[in-house]
Amino acid sequence: MKRLTMKQIADQLNISRTTVSLVLKGKGDQYRISKDTQQRIISYVEQAGYRPNYFASALNSRTSGIIGAVFPDLFESFMGSIVRGIETVLYEHDYSLMISTSRFSHQREQAIIENILYRGADGLLLVPSMPYHHETPYNSEYIGSLVKQDVPMVLIDRKIKGVTVPCVVQKDYDRSYGAVTSCIQNGAGRICCVSFYLQATSIEERLRGYARAVRDHHLEPSYILLREQNPSSRDLQTKLADQLRSKEPPDAFFVTTSGIADKLSWLLRSEGFTIPIARFGSTAPWTHQELMDIPQPHTEMGKKAAQLLIERIEGRPVEEITYC
Amino acid sequence: MKRLTMKQIADQLNISRTTVSLVLKGKGDQYRISKDTQQRIISYVEQAGYRPNYFASALNSRTSGIIGAVFPDLFESFMGSIVRGIETVLYEHDYSLMISTSRFSHQREQAIIENILYRGADGLLLVPSMPYHHETPYNSEYIGSLVKQDVPMVLIDRKIKGVTVPCVVQKDYDRSYGAVTSCIQNGAGRICCVSFYLQATSIEERLRGYARAVRDHHLEPSYILLREQNPSSRDLQTKLADQLRSKEPPDAFFVTTSGIADKLSWLLRSEGFTIPIARFGSTAPWTHQELMDIPQPHTEMGKKAAQLLIERIEGRPVEEITYC
DNA sequence: TTGAAAGCGCTAACAG
DNA sequence: CTGTTAGCGCTTTCAA
């Protein structure tokens, strides 16, 4: 895959490299280069499929036009929605996106960020990979060092405690509070909260919203907290059975993530229960009517994060927390 | 985000840049540089968080260590599975991945590939964005020109007619034939095939497998062919109603993509029908038992494609078609 | 062991 | 209009 260089073009056309460079940079008219020469260059370049050497330009300009993005994984389709938003904005601003996944590993997350920065990314978008509550907490030291190095960065969906970084999150607390309250107003008196017990601020805020709404209405909170990534595990099943068998079984569920809600809905149905579920996520066409959805503006979040990052790269000040 | 250069390190440590370069390249021992000096360099670099300038290296070596990948979209989770496979292999070989989405636009696909190549990618992985049958066919000219320019490239999931490019696909024909045959052996006599009518070879092969299996058993084929991306559209619903109301309603369905199958399953259930469905895709935990799944080795495909691409980049010959 | 020097492909003055 | 020159940060001989 040998590539054509500017020198070769110049030699081929018997003109100077400067001329070629000028024309290709669109400064031909400015330097009063003959229309004819310009045209010769343009057409030669097109016909030969010349691509300027990006590394040489980047070496000169010290910017890459690349934004790195790190996700825990891309299997969950909401990550895809975030990517859509990010790409939409970056594309408009002539940035390219370099995506990697940390596969839920904190160590890999670091390695990947290092790689992205080594690759000269102008900025970084990060959905941090958070541990469960029974695991060691997220270590903010590395991210802190990046902040100190002045690496432009925006977090998505989750804050990292202990460091000051711009962050785009959902209105988790408010939406949870609202959803639970509306369950109560619809007559629910025993709302069970089902959630991954993950150290992500988004989850924590949802739990907080639930707890507060329940408390404000003088009800007892009850929880099913899961420690596993895979929602097909037995964990939910056994804990659910306990709840349903208890003296005061729930008459509504509040679920913090849509995957669990799908599984829960299926379990309830196959046990013959019809109990409404309020959950974060949106209904796939085939799910059941007892689901009440709390919409999640993932694409918006992606867009917003990309916008903020660009602002930050271009030196404008950026607020620390943006709610979507 | 000013970055430390090798020169600065050398000056700081009062030694030559060559020495620093040599040590950092791991050639310290080879050039018999004192352990002491080596250690000084290493620790300085670590403490200062030095990252070598990637563009300068790439400019020298004329390779980037970057592989580009283009997907129609990342919202479908099977794309995420492919990414997993790709990343697993690339990570082992110290390549980085640059992902973009074409958003189902042929034009954008080209623009994105150009950008990736401009960015110096060493190779390209592509899931081409295919049009529907009522649209203009995929234009293979651009891809053909890349092949002529000797750009290392591997296609995933779909072949492009008219160009010779290595391609990793599923055993679509065989699996379809097998699934339909097994429906017939289970007593089905009227199997309706439901599919996007997309100009993708994967889909076409599945349709071919269906047609052949039905024909081989002297049954009549029947189809519901959809022209839309979004499976929540009315199209399926009305066409399904026609089928169910016909004098010989289907007693089994064969569906080429899992999204449609989910929707179909839901429609059938809400109309009170219990008709088995064979489909490409895998069962989410909450779906119904009447689904018979044809497993799709997406992660395997991603791995295989990445392996082939690396072979190709390193100059080894690669077969045109690989089945997973 | 280390320094000097050339060069990767392109850009940006500057002097014709 | 066009050629010359001096880098961008790093790698790689070739000498010392």
Q: How would you explain this protein's 3D organization?
A:
2 copies of one chain form a homodimer. With 324 residues, chain A is α/β, with parallel strands linked by helices. Chain A folds into 3 domains: 1-62, 434 Repressor (Amino-terminal Domain), CATH 1.10.260.40; 64-169 and 297-324, Rossmann fold (3-Layer(aba) Sandwich); 172-294, Rossmann fold (3-Layer(aba) Sandwich). Chain A is built from 12 helices and 11 strands. Chain A has helices at 6-13, 17-24, 35-48, 54-61, 77-92, 106-118, 141-148, 172-185, 201-216, 234-245, 258-270, 298-313; strands spanning 66-71, 96-101, 123-126, 153-156, 167-169, 191-196, 222-226, 252-255, 277-280, 291-294, 321-323. The first copy, chain A, has a 6-stranded parallel sheet, sandwiched between helices. In chain A, helix 11 links the parallel strand 8 (252-255) and strand 9. In chain A, helix 1 (6-13) packs across helix 2 (17-24), helix 5 runs parallel beside helix 12 and helix 8 (172-185) packs parallel to helix 9. The first copy, chain A, is elongated. Chains A and B meet through helix 4, helix 5, strand 2, helix 6 and helix 11 of A and helix 4, helix 5, strand 2, helix 6 and helix 11 of B. Chain A binds a DNA duplex (16 and 16 nucleotides) through helix 2 and helix 4.
